[in-house]
Structures are given as C-alpha cells and as structure tokens.
Automatic annotation (TrEMBL):
InterPro entries with a match to the protein in the record: Methyltransf_25, SAM-dependent_MTases_sf
Recorded name of the encoding gene: ubiG_4
GO molecular-function term, one example from the UniProt record: 2-polyprenyl-6-hydroxyphenol methylase activity
Pfam families to which the protein is assigned, alphabetical: Methyltransf_25
Protein name: Ubiquinone biosynthesis O-methyltransferase
Gene3D superfamilies in UniProt: Vaccinia Virus protein VP39
Methyltransferase domain sequence ranges: 61-152
EC class of the enzyme, as a word: transferase
Length: 278
C-alpha cells in the first residue's frame, strides 16, 4: 500500500513540475537573468540559516531545485534529491542554464542515505511543504541522522501541523477538519489545480498526505540522535494556504484577520550528536 501511495504522489508531482517551472511563482527566468537572485523561501530563511559557505549540503525533496540553487548561491556545495524524475530533470536544466555546479539525484527520500552515502553532509535542508508527503516521520528522522556527519545540522521550515489540520474551504471560521497527529492511512485529496498560477489542466489530481504533530517530529529527531537547537513558529507561509483569507507581502502570506490565533509555519533546527546518549 505504501508503494501505491508513493506512486500516486509521484505521478502528481511529475505532472505539475513543468507547470511550476513555467509559472512566474518559481521565478525561473529571474534565476537565469540575475546571478544574485534567491528564492523567496531561502531569503526568508536567511536570518536563521546563517553563513553556509563551504558547507556540504543536501536538500531533501527539492522539487525543481530553485531553493537548492539558492543555497548554492550562498556558498554551500549542494545536492538536491527528489523522487520525481521530471522534477529532477528540470532542476538539472535550470542549474545548467545558470552555470551552477549542483548535483541532483532522483531517489525516494527514505533511500537517500543509500543514494548519497552516510555521514557526509554538514547540512540537511528541508523546505516548505515536504513533510506532509511522508508516511513515517520517525523513519525520515533516521534518514536525516544517517546523512549528517557528527555535529552536522538539520534546517527545516515547513507548514505548521495546526495549519495542515484546518479546513481551507471554510471562510467563516478556523475549523479543525483533518488529523493533527500522524495516522497510518493518509488523508486523500482530489484537487484539479496546484498552488501556482497556471492554465494547465491536470489529469493526476489525487494526493495522499500525512500530518505530523510538533511533538512527534521533535521526539523522532531526539530518538534518531539529534538535539534541538531552534524552534520558531511564524505567522506566515509562502503560499496562499487559506484562499480568500490572506494577504501577501514580500513573498509571505498572512491572515487578514485574527493573525495572532494560528501558527502558519515553523522553523526547526537540530544538530546530530557526536555519540548516542547512554
């Protein structure tokens, strides 16, 4: 069954990757025209990310690689990994177009340590909208630990699990409609569109998604041998998560009303221990 869920999600991302690359939301042309251009996501991360020049980094679930490329422009030696072959091919073309040496690898995230080797990375980066595609956050945390060298760092910003629980179709109230905690079976959504501006009509419309509570995520990382060094909750996300109820400024979307009632995203950092706790 797990393979069936993964295959459905991969078909969805394979079909959407070209539309995302063509959309102004991903600003591919800006990357080609401006050697200093960074994605909105990475620019938001900069105050917490710090100096990454010279670090060997891997971006898990990198999609078409614009965030990966942005990290490389900040001086890191980056590898991007994604399970969508179409996404990886587009990421390689973008990197070649801007003359950047970024390695992109097609692999399921749970096989990342097999595909890339163990213990070789100073930085594991995971960006917005990645964790909901994973059925098992503990297995993911173990993968992160296997990739990192001792004292290596995980940097994660993602949608807040409370946000993922909200019914996005309700505009009259903030209503919890979906599980906050990880479930064995995914929530299935049938959506004909995507989160960027496009006229493309898609045929693969069903997604399979899992939420993971903050406690589950932190516990998984601690059990995998990482120590938490940062947890910041934000009142914004880089897409219109609740349509019709948000406004955008500098690439980040916030609630128009009652913005103090709902965490929309979070940044988490953790460092791999030199040795396991006794």
């Amino acid at each position: 069954m797990a393979d069936e869920h993964r295959d459905a999600n991969r078909a969805l991302w394979d079909e959407r990757a070209p539309a995302h690359a063509a959309s102004p939301d991903y600003a591919v042309q800006r990357f080609l025209d401006d050697p200093d251009w960074l994605s909105d996501v990475v620019r938001f991360d900069l105050p917490r990310l710090g100096d990454i020049s010279g670090l060997r980094g891997v971006h898990l679930q990198c999609h078409i690689g614009t965030d990966t490329l942005s990290l490389a422009r900040l001086g890191a030696r980056m590898t991007g990994l994604d399970f969508s072959g179409v996404s990886v091919a587009i990421a390689r073309r973008i990197a070649a177009g801007v003359g950047m040496d970024v390695d992109y690898v097609e692999s399921d995230v749970f096989d990342a340590a097999i595909a890339l080797g163990e213990g070789g990375f100073d930085l594991v980066y995971t960006g917005i909208g990645a964790l909901i595609w994973l059925p098992d956050v503990r297995r993911w945390a173990q993968t992160v630990a296997r990739l990192l060298r001792p004292h290596g760092r995980l940097f994660l910003r993602d949608g807040h699990p409370v946000l993922w629980s909200i019914d996005e179709e309700r505009t009259d109230a903030l209503v919890l409609a979906y599980p906050y905690f990880e479930q064995a079976e995914p929530v299935r959504f049938d959506s004909p569109g995507t989160y960027v501006e496009t006229d493309v009509v898609f045929t693969n419309t069903e997604s399979r998604e899992w939420n993971h509570g903050l406690g589950e995520l932190i516990t998984a990382l601690l059990e995998a041998g990482l120590d938490l060094t940062m947890l910041v909750e934000h009142d914004s996300v880089p897409w219109e998560a609740l349509p019709g109820r948000m406004h955008c400024q500098d690439g980040e979307w916030r609630l128009v009303e009652n913005g103090d009632r709902l965490p929309l995203s979070f940044t988490l950092q953790a460092v791999k221990r030199a040795r396991a706790l006794s």
